[in-house]
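User: Could you check the structure of this?
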Amino acid sequence: MAEPTVVRRSPAAAFAARFEAASAGGGLRLAEIPFLTQINLRVDPKSPAAERIGTAIGVPLPVEPGTVAGGGDLEVLWLGPDEWVLLAPDGAAPGLVARLTEAAGGEHVSVVDVSAQRTTLVVAGDRARDVLAHGCTLDLHPRVFGPGRCAQTTLARAGVVLVAGADGFRLLVRSSFAGYVAEWLLDASVEYVGPAA
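Assistant: Sure, the predicted structure tokens are below.
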């Protein structure tokens, strides 16, 4: 008997063609980065475990609020005084969880794979800030929220983790809200799409 084929479908897969159409004008790019590894880490930042974890992953845990640290394919986002989310390519979760757990050395640390909890939406281009400003209360000016910054916030009343990069923004969105946020982004971007954008 043949084994059943397992097909993974990302939470915003149904929006791929519409994202591509909205991105055709050049001033805005909407996309999904499906299946990123996302590991939630809770540890006392002043503990020996935090230092060992930083050494084990090759990236010291950022301690400045709302900042991102990175190295290679790994990014560490500060979410709170003792909480981070680690982002890595698809499939990296088992090895990353093992490294974090080993580095914890039995100290009080929480390491949870939350990869299936969220997907990642991209809002990039010259009009990215304009689109997000329709539903986000953060000051998104580059001097305030430029590359290397992150925040837990709301976008159109949906909880997201917003990450600023050199080419735009990434939104870590709960899978159950991905369709809602994708639809909202498409609606908010209507005025910036097409030849007039």
